[in-house]
Amino acid sequence: MKARAPQKAARQSPDDAAAKPTADLSSRGIARYHQLAAVFRRQIETGTWEVGSQIPTVIELAQSYDVARETVRQALGMLADEGLIRRYRAKGTFVTAAPRDQIWCQLETNFLGLLQAREGAQIELIEEERKVPITGRIEFGVPDVAYRRLHRRHWRQDQPYMVADVFISERWANKIPRSAFTSKTALKLIADIEGLTIADVEQIMTIGVADLEASTALRIPLNAPVAQIERCVTDSDGILVLFARNTYRGDVVRLNIKSK
Are strands 92-95 and 85-88 parallel, antiparallel or unpaired? Predict the structure, then answer.
């Protein structure tokens, strides 16, 4: 059986493309090719550029978005590095995968789900600090006097997908076996402590973009989409015994919420 050749996507003529700029690439502090790569990535996510189809040429894209050809090449290079497109000499550039095809990380919304480690995942303990305060704003619970800070990174199939700062009350941190720091979810670390009563758990999710630190830790482009999850756990006295600030790669996570 013959393999089906990649399809060519219908596209505008260079003159039509040049007459209709399709994105605002004027954001300050963000390299233009990063902004353009985000636009191209979105074209694939939405199916405008379908998997298996040929995308417009560098010249056409440069005219469409009113940028230099080198800027287009740099943006396409980022997508190629992500495995989303492939360039063929004398044939053109074709879409090989969609970001949504890589989505596997379900963000849990219930207590039991938060206790479970993800199948095939490994946890790396990057840094540990003792007797430190929680940095940043706290919207839930009463802060304890001091915390143990664990800076951790989660991996699956040799790919980092989440980086986290986990703050555990020092009153309880010494009761956690060290081996648990690289094997258990943040909530599981607290839930397994004998004598500690969990009264409430709160999750806050925001959608943002990767800063330099997150970009480096997660091996994603600067300003790539990320999901930021804060998890707060209080004891029966309302004391914040656990605070976790997690940053997930936006291209591997999904959130399903049942409304009924």
Answer: antiparallel
Assess if residue 1 is contained within a domain: no
Q: Model-level pTM? A: 0.65
The pLDDT, as a whole number, for residue 244 is 94
**Residue 259, in any domain of the structure:** no
CA quadruple 5, 9, 15, 18: dihedral sign: negative
Query: Rounded to whole angstroms, how far apart are CA atoms 119 and 106?
Result: 11
Q: Cα–Cα distances in Å, from 164 out to 77, 193, 217, 228? A: 29, 21, 10, 10
The domain boundary residue, chosen from 73, 100, 127: 100
Please report the DSSP string for 81-107 in residue order: HTTSEEEETTTEEEE---GGGG--EEP
Q: How far is residue 150's CA from residue 178's CA, in Å, rounded to a whole number?
A: 11
Distance CA 237, CA 142 (A): 9
* Those residues with Cβ within 8 angstroms of residue 173's Cβ, 6 or more apart along the chain or in another chain: 130, 147, 148
Are 110 and 95 within one domain?
Answer: no
